[in-house]
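quick one before i forget lol
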Amino acid sequence: MPLNWDDDEEDLTEIDYKKRPTRILVHDELTPPLGQAFPPVVRREPPPETAIHPPEEPRATMSRSPALGAYAPAASRDRFAAFCIDSWLAALLYWPVGYGLLKFFGIATMALLHQGRGRLAIHVAATLLMAFLYYVIMESVFGATLGKFFCRLRVIDENGESAALGSVFIRNLLRLVDYPFAFLIAVITMESSPLNQRFGDRAAKTLVIKKTRRRLPALDLTHTPLASTFSRLLAEAVDLLLALTLIYGLFLWMRPEHPLLSRALFLNLPAIFILYYTLLEFLLGSTPGKTLFKRQVVLENGEPPDGTGALLRNLLRPLDYLLGYPLMVLSPRKQRLGDMTANTLVVAKAPPGKAWLGSALAFVLVLLTAYSGARNPNNPIRKDYGLGAIQGLKVFIPSLRPAPLSSKRPSGPVPQKTQKPTLTSKQPSPSPVSTSDKLSLAEFYFATGPAPAQIRQDGIFRSGDLVFLFFKMQGFTLNKAGEVNLVEDLKVEDPEGKVILEEPDIVTLSKTLQNDKTAVLFANQVQLAGDAPLGKYRAVIVIRDQVAETQFSFEKVFELQ
């Protein structure tokens, strides 16, 4: 009879087992007959083929699962910040490579090096090769470039181990595929990858990770007010004044006798402007202006800014000079465009003590930079040039020089001057004889305009203009003290052969140089009369080497239209 488990417990307890004449005997595989002892218990192990395994974690869509540990795939913003730093460092290689090519070809100036497509192509190709080696060596030896170190990024393979040299070579070679068309291939492959891998990473089986930094003390943003728009504008006024002072001081460091170094410094002034803000906020969490008004920069979690945040918020600073003010007013968290991109906030809380010390040090360094630039006797605005601060740049930047004089007349109307009739024209006087076989002209160009600060870009010489003569000499002799002593004589004749300017010893150049391979700069200006006759003017220049007791003469012609 089947057992009824629904019977009440009370009914079961009323059964009188003693009155029952029968006994229930149970026999099965496990229970022995009545009166026999139970056998020892033997644990039965399940067969190996029926062993139960825990379910595996789902793997990403790649060949091997990376062991990331405390790491996470780097976000696009972190990789972009590292890319900006590395691109700037790679661009700096252009100048040492150019210097090496100047020595290799025996050329004095970069302008002469770039004459002709062959040597220019060699310069560009050599620079790209050095940049490629920079990426490969840094990532294979140290696991990261300098930009990645700044943003706490590392390159590893998909197993979580250091990337091999072959993988690093492939991922950097395929930048040629990732970079064209505004990084379109890189963006598409990174957004479709669960590990944010670009095309080069997928081909090389590598990925870029971001290391977790140590826990830093964070502000309680729920009890910390945001900095007001007005206080941020005041702080920026102080910081901008210091930044522009630094830039102008570095501009005054430029020397005509070092054109390559001066040109490199000039082209990197915008990057130095960005680095001024970035390094201060990364190291101190504040700038001198913010420190003065007791403000500091933090991430949206209250921690001090990391390298990525400090760089991105200042990389967009030039754009924020146009849009920052309205965005701070309209944004509920007082964020400008750089803050929104970098996930940063500016709070009304006094920065730590190191910010005050660092700001004072930055202030002193800015003043020393400006003072040393002003004390430079050969800075671009020295009175010998007769040029202003802006026009002095023409000494260093070929792209800003006036265009070569064209034989064609300008299309627009040009006021014409009536040339005075002459019965006889004087024959031009012969040029002085050169007695030096070492002195030579390295570079020469004209510039003209109504005033030093109004250089005309069309290269047309007109009556009443100031005519500027810039040229560089090389091959001089140094005395025992390492000094050069050159004297210039200048004579200018009008189209009739009449001498309109004759100045012996117009320039005396005496200075100490490291070697006699350097080219020295001369600058002159000639004032044309308002009724100066049209035609070709002849400038005769004599450079006398007082040490070698030799001279070098040459002449140049410009046409008044």
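fyi The mean pLDDT is 81.
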